[in-house]
Give the backbone structure.
Amino acid sequence: QVQLVESGGGLVQAGGSLRLSCAASGRTFSSANMGWYRQAPGKERGFVAISGYLGSTYYLESVKGRFTISRDNAKNTLYLQMNSLKPEDTAIYYCNALEYWGQGTLVTVSS
């Protein structure tokens, strides 16, 4: 059974940092793109960052320079380092690989 399990969310003040993790089990994703998405209250889920399996990375324009996506294929884990957080970053953050999604982790940024 393939699972993606996110962790690391929480409540943080504006300007603070959080590091999200997504631990994969049941199969490896070293040859697949992996990404982070988020869904804010009342909005649709949208792309945040992608880690390409060949090493490329892509970011939502509004998080460039603040967020960093990385992966450790030996640990089958995806990360999202989030710095200089803003209230508008408040959302449930989801990990994705192929057709698999995690259950999400809530990030709340207070002003």
